[in-house]
Amino acid sequence: MNPNKNGYFWPTPEQELLLKAALLKGEDAIAAWRGWAAAVDFDSLDAGSQRLLPLLYRNLAEHDVRHQALNVYKGFYRITWYRNRLLYHRITSVLSLLGSKGISAVLLKGAALAPLYYKDWALRPMDDFDLLVQTGDALKTVDLLCLSGWSPAFSIPDESDLATRHACTLIDASGVEFDLHWRVMAESGRNDADDDLRKNTRVIDFGGVSVQVLSHTDQLFHVLVHGARWNAVAPLRWVPDSIMILREAGLKIDWHRLLNEARSRCLVISLKKTVTYLHEVFAASVPEDIIYSLGRMRPSPAERMEFWMNGRPRGLVRDMVYLWFKHARTSGVTGFMRLMFGFPSFLGRFWRVPDDKGLAGFLIRRLVKRISSDPGKVSGSGRASLSDGYSARASAKGMLLRFRNKLLSASGLTARQVRTDGKESWRSFSIADGRIVPPYSCEINAVDHCNIACIDCNHASPGAGKAIASPSAVFKDLSLLSRHYKAYALKVVGGEPLLHPDLLSLLRAVRESNICEYISLVTNGTLLRQMADEIWAELDEVELSIYPATRPMLESYLPYFQKSAARHRVKLVISPYEEFRITFSTIGTADAGLTGRIYRNCRLANLWGCQSVHQGYFFKCPKCIYIPRMLDGPRRYDYREDGLKITDSPDFLHKLAEYLSSQEPLSACRYCLGSSGKNRPHRQVKASEWADIHARPVKELVDYDKLMWD
Predict the structure, then answer these.
(1) In the structure, what pLDDT confidence band is assigned to residue 417 with cuts at 50, 70 and 90?
(2) For the segment 558-570, what is each residue's pLDDT rounded down to a tens digit?
(3) Does domain 411-706 have CATH number 3.20.20?
(4) Does the 13-313 domain belong in CATH 3.30.460.40?
């Protein structure tokens, strides 16, 4: 099976031991766990294996295993429950919204598997959720969701996407993602290919909302087919997903219908390989006559080629082969020559090549760009793959790092890692290629001031004077920092960044500094209509914050913003805010215990990895920059004491790691609510009133229910 650790769906020997430890019973499970623990370096554990740790914890706990490592596994179990419950509430809100408009949906993948088969929201990690709607409802659903705070993660889907793709990704202001399907899977082919799957759905209650799910047979089929493909994060979950379905509903599986589905969709080899593996390695309960029938099946050469290609990372040639098979499945055309004649038209629709531009020239430009870029990374423009018609958002390494850090950071261990000596060390970052990598992004302030005054602006802009970042100074600081630090994304924020008189030069300074792969501009949108095309072209993302006072104007401009983003291939994220979390207290607190609790529960410091560069200094939290200037008299201090001066000294990497690893709250934390402040409705205030509004003690402003970890 040629297992490897690069995303191939067959488990490596170490991963197979982990799967056995998580799924088997008795001494077999314990022996597998001991073998796995001795074979791997836990601090370097791949993200695919990390996803199995909640299941491992539950299985070992049921076997009454006593070992300090279970405390670490329990942290993954707890954070999985926490994150999945947050997703659960987002799912129910989306389902309620669709139901109110008469749009029926089918719950797919993890969101259906966790409650139906795992029976525990803590056991099955999910990064997102998936919903299936009728093809005719897809574009209407996207429009509805965009008006409710969701944004397409890439481009806004259109009719060409309905014909050539099976789903699109949407994202909300908090970073939650979900995939909206109009076909069940990439291999579904034409729009009518899923009629049998839709016909056999059943209705369940999901948090008080009725929703359809696939039948047990189709759930298993979907898991097996979806799992049998390469992914940047090793897709090991297909094994426990399948086992859990078989344990819970094995007697209800219509195996002969499963075989017929595989034959009709030309997916025999996927089913044959995966079912045989489950039967041989995990003693999965599969009827002997089915095993015999699978053994006699002879997939076609084309099917074998597609299966081989799907199981490996893409390249220039594999991209075109992948698209050829996609064309063959969606066109409904048979015969090689007819498919060949229709292939250019398919590529044009898939990539949305304008009618006035030739496909040949478009292909040449993509190939030249692909060849000239580093194939191991996402290019600065974020468009790295021929077969990806949208902007790629992350390198494989970036996704692994963010997944690892997000799991560790909000758990009961709060980003701690157990070392070989049994002691704990605090880490809210990773190190790769000799550089520190934050969980997601870093930020810079283009300006400190703003053209509106939000009551709980977490950058304290209403109380700030006019200040403009120098492009040359930003380039110097970021270039120096980039020798020891590499973020996936850099956010250009404010204040309102569009108030910067030379924003184009600032963005180019960021791009040339090599600090990041991806640039995002965060704006309140009131000046966005005036943003020049040259600035759009320098960006990978625009995050548009919509407040009650600005919503009517921005909604009228939204079609223009969407067209501009699509024209420049920029991701447009729409983030509506009806409430703000209270952030600051100008009175503060002298209670060191309360300050410590707020710090340990702070998502900005421990989950989101919000970090900032300002006037030659690096800050683990951007609020450190703003808080001192809000204070008066003897309480005011130099904001730089909470940061680290960026230098070219040989020991800077060590100093930066120590600074980020410190467990001690910063001076600013005495006046900060972190992510534990009470919520209150958003409103605009007079800048002169802003400081007085925040002149209340911390203990009156904190929401103690948000202090989950002591």
Answers:
(1) very low
(2) 888 988 998 898 9
(3) yes
(4) yes
